[in-house]
Design brief:
- Strand 12 and strand 13 form a beta hairpin.
- The strands form 4 sheets. The protein has an 8-stranded mixed sheet, sandwiched between helices. Strands 1, 2, 3, 4, 5, 6 and 7 form a 7-stranded mixed sheet that branches.
- It contains 14 helices and 20 strands.
- It folds into 2 domains: 157 residues, 3-Layer(aba) Sandwich (Leucine Aminopeptidase, subunit E, domain 1); 319 residues, Aminopeptidase, CATH 3.40.630.10.
- It is of the alpha/beta class.
- The protein is elongated and about 80 Å long.
- The structure holds ligand BES, manganese (II) ion (MN) and zinc ion (ZN).
- Manganese (II) ion binds next to loops.
């Protein structure tokens, strides 16, 4: 999707497939709609009347070939009460408009949103959201379809501005567009089946990203190297699989040489069968999405490489399969992590924390300013939060607040969960330093507690995206979350960094 911003002095003279015009409750026109109505000789007012169009949010009417207007179509977009649209309502309106125009044959659209006064957010926020939403609307999965249905013709979305847009607004749109492109990469990797999207495939994608961007550098560690590093926990997960495990390291060097990086670590289980503690059959296909944390790291690195903020970022992906076989790790096996902590594997389906603990220990060598892991870690997180919020755990309240703010600003929201010491007791083992499961209560908290054992020296946070990373049912597919949250978080760090110089 081609997404841009443009100063439009006279909307009636704007040649395009469709002009989107906000109309408030009671069919009240804003400045742009009023100007168009005048140019079209009252056609808009007559349409509002004959269609009994109330201007309610979530409703719209389409007008073909309006007279006196250069646009081929006009979409009157209901916006509800002026000033009443909060962030969620604004997003719904924009998504509705994109969907309505995609249902027409229009190849391009111009949105004049200035008359939509949101009560919470400013013009720059709106531009970022338009970039995010229009970018997301441009994604379709086709990779393994032999005859994909023709998609919408919409290829270009323009945010029209009655005044000359400020540099900050242009930048905000760029940021939203880059976040959406990163999220679309994450969605594609998530949606690809596990027989295509293997650990080696993820490594080749990371290498391809590095080849595209001079500031990105990629290194891939194989199992031999992992064994040298004594990554016994990670290797115990891949033990039952024929696919080779990969530890992918992508470095973005946009800051001062020697400036400590922010490090992202993604769970990249390209298929999670549960291993010997095998999962039930129903819905097991969805465990191809168990690499969505890894995908979000690659998507974020790609967005960051495009936006070029002044900071250093390292993306680490721990990738392997979790399968049962004669060589697989068994319940009760004790393995030794790179940190030297021994782990009793009571359930081979709690594998995410096993690959992450070694990746988090490996991350120490970069001396991170902040260390954030992203993982589809627990079914318990889905029970706790459903699909709307990612679970956020952290050993540092300032870092947690920064991540929550980034999530709220992008509407890629997270919710702060407890990481109290009281929960640590549940991980006691009679045969190792720690057990890999914590019993029935607070499953997402004990998983985070497990990881916290390996990040004591770090300013660390963990995002459990088990509920937010993909949609189930008819709309089954990866969401690309939390690429927007992570990208916003990193961009804000660069901004603060600059101000502090
Ligand atoms: N990848 C799963 C978590 C998951 C399950 C994500 C369902 C999304 C939907 C993870 O590896 C897992 O299997 N976790 C177990 C942990 C348990 C054995 C302590 C779980 O959540 O059941
Ligand atoms: Mn599992
Ligand atoms: Zn898993």
């Amino acid at each position: 999707m081609d997404i841009s911003i443009k100063h439009i002095a006279d909307p009636a003279a704007e040649r395009c497939g469709c002009l989107v015009l906000p109309v408030a409750d009671g069919g009240k026109f804003g400045a742009a709609a009023a100007r168009l109505d005048q140019a079209a000789d009252g056609q808009l007012a007559r349409l509002v009347k004959s269609e009994h169009f109330s201007g309610a949010a979530g409703k719209s009417v389409l007008l073909h070939n309006p007279s006196g207007v250069a646009a081929q179509r006009l979409l009157l977009l209901g916006c509800g009460k002026p000033g009443a649209a909060d962030a969620a309502a604004f997003r719904k309106m924009v998504m509705h408009a994109l969907g309505a125009v995609q249902a027409t044959g229009a190849a391009d659209l111009v949105m004049l949103l200035e008359d939509v006064a949101t009560n919470e957010r400013d013009r720059d926020w709106q531009a970022q959201q338009l970039g995010l939403l229009a970018g997301a609307a441009g994604y379709r999965y086709t990779h393994t379809l032999s005859k994909p249905e023709p998609g919408s013709r919409l290829k270009k979305v323009v945010l029209g501005s009655a005044t000359r847009p400020s540099a900050a607004t242009v930048r905000a749109l760029d940021e939203g567009r880059a976040m959406a492109a990163g999220a679309n990469l994450a969605r594609e990797l998530g949606n690809l089946p596990a027989n295509i999207c293997t650990p080696s495939y993820l490594a080749s994608q990371a290498r391809a990203l590095a080849a595209q961007h001079p500031q990105l550098h990629c290194r891939v560690l194989d199992e031999k190297k992992m064994a040298e590093l004594k990554m016994g926990a990670l290797l115990s997960v891949t033990a039952g699989s024929k696919e080779a495990a990969k530890l992918i390291v992508l470095e973005y060097r946009g800051g001062a040489r020697g400036a400590r990086p922010h490090v992202l670590v993604g769970k990249g289980i390209t298929f999670d069968s549960g291993g010997i503690s095998i999962k039930p059959g129903a819905g097991m296909d969805e465990m191809k999405f168990d690499m969505c944390g890894a995908a979000s790291v690659l998507g974020t690195m790609s967005a960051i490489a495009g936006l070029k903020p002044r900071l250093n970022v390292v993306g680490i992906v721990a990738a392997c399969e979790n399968l049962p076989s004669g060589t697989a790790t068994k319940p009760g096996d004790v393995v030794k992590s790179m940190a030297g902590i021994t782990i009793e594997v009571l359930n081979t389906d709690a594998e995410g924390r096993l690959i992450l603990c070694d990746a988090l220990t490996y991350a120490e060598r970069f001396e991170p300013q902040s260390l954030i892991d992203i993982a589809t870690l627990t079914g318990a997180c889905v029970v706790a939060l459903g699909k709307h919020a990612s679970g956020l755990f952290s050993n540092n309240d300032d870092l947690a607040a920064e991540l929550l703010a980034a999530g709220s600003h992008t509407h890629d929201r997270a919710w702060h969960m407890p990481l109290w010491d009281d929960y640590q007791e549940q991980l006691k083992s009679n045969f190792a330093d720690v057990a890999n499961i914590g019993g029935p209560g607070a499953g997402s908290v004990t998983a985070a507690c497990f990881l916290s054992r390996f990040t004591k020296k770090q300013r660390w946070a963990h995002l459990d995206i088990a509920g937010s990373a993909w949609e189930q049912g008819a709309a089954k597919g990866a969401t690309g979350r939390p690429v927007a949250l992570l990208t916003r978080y990193l961009l804000d760090r660069a901004r603060h960094h600059k101000a502090a110089d």
